[in-house]
Amino acid sequence: MTRLLPLVLSRFDLPEAELHAARLDGELFAIDECFGPIDLAPHASLRAASLAAILPARLIAEQRTAAWVLGALLDPPAQHQVCADAAARYRFAGAARFTVREVVLDSDDTAVLGGLRVTTPLRTAIDLTRFCAEFGAAEEEIVAGLARIGRFDLPAAIAGLERRRHLPGKVRAAQRLRAALLPASGVSRR
């Protein structure tokens, strides 16, 4: 019986030379380190599947990587940010393009897209406002995009932040959420 190729192709499915040749021939397009058929528009499940093809199953896309998967960031980050649930007690050998951290997750903090666990838009926005070293206009736009995708507003974001007790960076995150989600001078972000 003929084996069907997966929707997203990686170096584990075909040699890289063949994948790049198919891209040059206009049959595939690049999705981070993987490739997808040209007749499919890029979408969240396809971006997630491209990461699921190269990541161990226990790892979860978070922060900028989750923002890219969800569609709030156009290009994949140069350094993917993934996490492992602290309850999973998982150790990742690592790779140059991935930063991994161990986190405590509630059951509603992740969703599965394209075979990959991804932090929800709300959890992603909260994590970005807590952990970004610099938080400027680009980061505000990402958080605003996550709010549109996840259909949450400032009160819902603040409530999501407040329900987590003993959270480091909570005050700074609330300030950043306000900056990103309060329209300046009544002008909406689009």
TrEMBL record:
<protein>
    <recommendedName>
        <fullName>AbiEi antitoxin C-terminal domain-containing protein</fullName>
    </recommendedName>
</protein>
<feature type="domain" description="AbiEi antitoxin C-terminal">
    <location>
        <begin position="61"/>
        <end position="146"/>
    </location>
</feature>
<dbReference type="InterPro" id="IPR018547">
    <property type="entry name" value="AbiEi_C"/>
</dbReference>
<dbReference type="Pfam" id="PF09407">
    <property type="entry name" value="AbiEi_1"/>
</dbReference>
